[in-house]
Design brief:
The chain has 207 residues and is of the alpha/beta class. A six-stranded mixed β-sheet has the order 1-6-5-4-3-2, with helices on both faces.
Length: 207
Protein backbone atom coordinates (compact mmCIF):
# COMPACT_ATOMS: atom_id res chain seq x y z
CA UNK A 1 0.00 0.00 0.00
CA UNK A 2 1.58 3.26 -1.09
CA UNK A 3 0.99 6.63 0.46
CA UNK A 4 0.88 9.59 -1.90
CA UNK A 5 1.34 13.11 -0.55
CA UNK A 6 -1.60 15.38 -1.32
CA UNK A 7 -1.78 19.14 -0.97
CA UNK A 8 -4.94 20.08 -2.83
CA UNK A 9 -7.45 18.45 -5.15
CA UNK A 10 -10.23 19.93 -7.29
CA UNK A 11 -12.84 18.53 -9.68
CA UNK A 12 -10.19 18.39 -12.41
CA UNK A 13 -8.64 15.37 -10.67
CA UNK A 14 -11.18 13.04 -12.28
CA UNK A 15 -11.12 14.61 -15.73
CA UNK A 16 -8.44 12.31 -17.15
CA UNK A 17 -10.01 8.90 -16.62
CA UNK A 18 -12.00 6.96 -19.19
CA UNK A 19 -15.17 5.39 -17.90
CA UNK A 20 -15.34 2.04 -19.63
CA UNK A 21 -18.72 0.79 -18.39
CA UNK A 22 -20.34 1.93 -21.65
CA UNK A 23 -17.98 -0.40 -23.52
CA UNK A 24 -19.14 -3.48 -21.65
CA UNK A 25 -21.25 -6.15 -23.28
CA UNK A 26 -24.74 -6.86 -21.97
CA UNK A 27 -23.53 -9.83 -19.94
CA UNK A 28 -20.75 -7.81 -18.32
CA UNK A 29 -23.19 -4.93 -17.68
CA UNK A 30 -25.48 -7.32 -15.84
CA UNK A 31 -22.52 -8.77 -13.90
CA UNK A 32 -21.42 -5.26 -12.92
CA UNK A 33 -24.88 -4.46 -11.57
CA UNK A 34 -24.66 -7.64 -9.51
CA UNK A 35 -21.28 -6.57 -8.13
CA UNK A 36 -22.65 -3.20 -7.06
CA UNK A 37 -25.56 -4.89 -5.31
CA UNK A 38 -23.29 -7.42 -3.62
CA UNK A 39 -20.82 -4.74 -2.45
CA UNK A 40 -22.95 -1.61 -1.95
CA UNK A 41 -20.31 0.08 0.22
CA UNK A 42 -17.61 -0.21 -2.47
CA UNK A 43 -17.32 2.66 -4.95
CA UNK A 44 -16.78 0.88 -8.28
CA UNK A 45 -15.34 2.68 -11.31
CA UNK A 46 -14.83 0.87 -14.61
CA UNK A 47 -11.85 2.51 -16.28
CA UNK A 48 -8.66 2.04 -18.25
CA UNK A 49 -5.99 4.62 -17.50
CA UNK A 50 -4.04 5.65 -20.58
CA UNK A 51 -1.23 7.21 -18.54
CA UNK A 52 0.11 7.49 -15.01
CA UNK A 53 -1.19 11.06 -14.96
CA UNK A 54 -4.74 9.82 -15.54
CA UNK A 55 -4.36 7.22 -12.82
CA UNK A 56 -3.04 9.84 -10.38
CA UNK A 57 -5.99 12.07 -11.25
CA UNK A 58 -8.33 9.23 -10.28
CA UNK A 59 -6.49 8.57 -7.01
CA UNK A 60 -6.40 12.22 -5.99
CA UNK A 61 -10.02 12.74 -6.96
CA UNK A 62 -11.36 9.78 -4.98
CA UNK A 63 -12.70 10.20 -1.47
CA UNK A 64 -13.49 7.52 1.07
CA UNK A 65 -11.57 4.33 1.75
CA UNK A 66 -13.45 1.78 -0.39
CA UNK A 67 -12.73 2.80 -3.98
CA UNK A 68 -11.89 0.43 -6.79
CA UNK A 69 -11.09 1.12 -10.44
CA UNK A 70 -11.30 -1.98 -12.57
CA UNK A 71 -10.50 -2.36 -16.26
CA UNK A 72 -13.53 -3.13 -18.49
CA UNK A 73 -11.57 -6.06 -19.89
CA UNK A 74 -11.31 -7.56 -16.41
CA UNK A 75 -15.04 -7.04 -15.81
CA UNK A 76 -15.73 -8.92 -19.07
CA UNK A 77 -13.39 -11.70 -17.94
CA UNK A 78 -15.08 -11.91 -14.52
CA UNK A 79 -18.48 -12.10 -16.16
CA UNK A 80 -17.44 -15.05 -18.34
CA UNK A 81 -14.91 -16.88 -16.17
CA UNK A 82 -15.98 -18.10 -12.70
CA UNK A 83 -12.33 -18.62 -11.68
CA UNK A 84 -11.47 -15.00 -12.59
CA UNK A 85 -14.62 -13.80 -10.82
CA UNK A 86 -13.65 -15.65 -7.63
CA UNK A 87 -10.09 -14.30 -7.83
CA UNK A 88 -10.94 -10.63 -8.27
CA UNK A 89 -14.03 -10.57 -6.08
CA UNK A 90 -11.68 -11.19 -3.15
CA UNK A 91 -10.41 -7.65 -3.74
CA UNK A 92 -13.96 -6.29 -3.56
CA UNK A 93 -14.57 -8.25 -0.36
CA UNK A 94 -11.38 -6.91 1.21
CA UNK A 95 -12.40 -3.37 0.34
CA UNK A 96 -15.59 -3.81 2.33
CA UNK A 97 -13.53 -3.80 5.53
CA UNK A 98 -10.96 -1.29 4.35
CA UNK A 99 -12.43 1.72 6.18
CA UNK A 100 -11.75 0.23 9.60
CA UNK A 101 -8.13 -0.58 8.71
CA UNK A 102 -7.45 2.88 7.27
CA UNK A 103 -9.05 4.66 10.24
CA UNK A 104 -6.90 2.60 12.61
CA UNK A 105 -3.80 3.49 10.58
CA UNK A 106 -4.72 7.19 10.67
CA UNK A 107 -5.20 7.09 14.47
CA UNK A 108 -1.87 5.37 15.00
CA UNK A 109 0.15 7.66 12.73
CA UNK A 110 -1.76 10.91 13.20
CA UNK A 111 -1.88 11.34 9.41
CA UNK A 112 -4.81 12.76 7.47
CA UNK A 113 -6.09 10.23 4.93
CA UNK A 114 -8.21 11.49 2.03
CA UNK A 115 -8.87 8.34 0.08
CA UNK A 116 -7.87 4.72 -0.36
CA UNK A 117 -8.69 1.72 -2.48
CA UNK A 118 -7.44 -0.57 -5.22
CA UNK A 119 -6.86 -0.60 -8.97
CA UNK A 120 -7.17 -3.68 -11.20
CA UNK A 121 -5.54 -2.85 -14.52
CA UNK A 122 -6.10 -4.40 -17.95
CA UNK A 123 -3.39 -7.00 -17.22
CA UNK A 124 -5.12 -8.09 -14.04
CA UNK A 125 -2.54 -6.53 -11.74
CA UNK A 126 -3.99 -5.43 -8.40
CA UNK A 127 -2.51 -2.30 -6.79
CA UNK A 128 -3.57 -0.98 -3.41
CA UNK A 129 -3.27 2.74 -2.76
CA UNK A 130 -3.80 5.35 -0.08
CA UNK A 131 -3.66 9.13 -0.51
CA UNK A 132 -3.17 11.58 2.33
CA UNK A 133 -0.72 13.85 4.04
CA UNK A 134 1.25 13.85 7.24
CA UNK A 135 0.10 16.32 9.86
CA UNK A 136 3.75 17.20 10.37
CA UNK A 137 3.91 18.32 6.74
CA UNK A 138 0.87 20.52 7.31
CA UNK A 139 2.63 22.17 10.23
CA UNK A 140 5.80 22.77 8.12
CA UNK A 141 8.24 19.87 7.96
CA UNK A 142 11.33 22.04 8.38
CA UNK A 143 10.00 23.63 11.56
CA UNK A 144 8.83 20.33 12.99
CA UNK A 145 12.19 18.66 12.29
CA UNK A 146 14.12 21.58 13.80
CA UNK A 147 11.94 21.53 16.92
CA UNK A 148 12.46 17.77 17.28
CA UNK A 149 16.23 18.10 17.01
CA UNK A 150 16.31 20.99 19.49
CA UNK A 151 14.17 19.02 21.91
CA UNK A 152 16.47 15.99 21.64
CA UNK A 153 19.55 18.16 22.26
CA UNK A 154 17.92 19.80 25.29
CA UNK A 155 16.92 16.39 26.69
CA UNK A 156 20.48 15.10 26.24
CA UNK A 157 21.88 18.14 28.05
CA UNK A 158 19.50 17.72 30.98
CA UNK A 159 20.33 14.00 31.16
CA UNK A 160 24.08 14.72 31.06
CA UNK A 161 23.84 17.32 33.83
CA UNK A 162 21.82 14.93 35.98
CA UNK A 163 24.41 12.18 35.43
CA UNK A 164 27.27 14.56 36.31
CA UNK A 165 25.49 15.74 39.47
CA UNK A 166 24.89 12.13 40.53
CA UNK A 167 28.53 11.26 39.83
CA UNK A 168 29.76 14.19 41.95
CA UNK A 169 27.39 13.27 44.74
CA UNK A 170 28.67 9.69 44.74
CA UNK A 171 32.31 10.88 44.76
CA UNK A 172 31.63 13.25 47.66
CA UNK A 173 29.91 10.48 49.58
CA UNK A 174 32.79 8.10 48.87
CA UNK A 175 35.29 10.69 50.12
CA UNK A 176 33.27 11.25 53.30
CA UNK A 177 33.10 7.52 53.97
CA UNK A 178 36.82 7.19 53.33
CA UNK A 179 37.63 10.02 55.76
CA UNK A 180 35.35 8.52 58.39
CA UNK A 181 36.97 5.10 58.00
CA UNK A 182 40.42 6.69 58.28
CA UNK A 183 39.43 8.51 61.48
CA UNK A 184 38.04 5.32 63.02
CA UNK A 185 41.17 3.43 62.01
CA UNK A 186 43.41 6.03 63.64
CA UNK A 187 41.33 6.03 66.82
CA UNK A 188 41.40 2.24 66.95
CA UNK A 189 45.17 2.13 66.46
CA UNK A 190 45.95 4.85 69.07
CA UNK A 191 45.82 2.58 72.23
CA UNK A 192 47.99 -0.03 70.50
CA UNK A 193 50.50 2.60 69.48
CA UNK A 194 50.60 4.10 72.96
CA UNK A 195 51.20 0.67 74.49
CA UNK A 196 54.10 0.01 72.13
CA UNK A 197 55.65 3.34 73.06
CA UNK A 198 55.27 2.57 76.75
CA UNK A 199 53.06 5.51 77.41
CA UNK A 200 50.15 3.52 78.75
CA UNK A 201 47.12 5.31 79.99
CA UNK A 202 47.81 8.62 81.67
CA UNK A 203 45.80 9.70 84.71
CA UNK A 204 45.66 13.32 85.73
CA UNK A 205 46.34 13.39 89.55
CA UNK A 206 46.42 17.16 89.91
CA UNK A 207 43.99 18.46 92.55
Amino acid sequence: MAVSGVTECTSTCTAGRTNGSSRLGSGAQEYLRGLKEKYPDVNITVADFKSRKQEDAYLLGSRGYQNIAVSPGIVEKMANDPAAAAKYEKVFAELSGNAERIEKFARETGDEIFGAGAVIDRNGKVSWWMAGRSRERIENPGTVYKEKVQKQIAEKRVKKKAEEALREKRLAKAESVEKLMEKLRVEAEEPVKAKKEGRGTQIDLNI
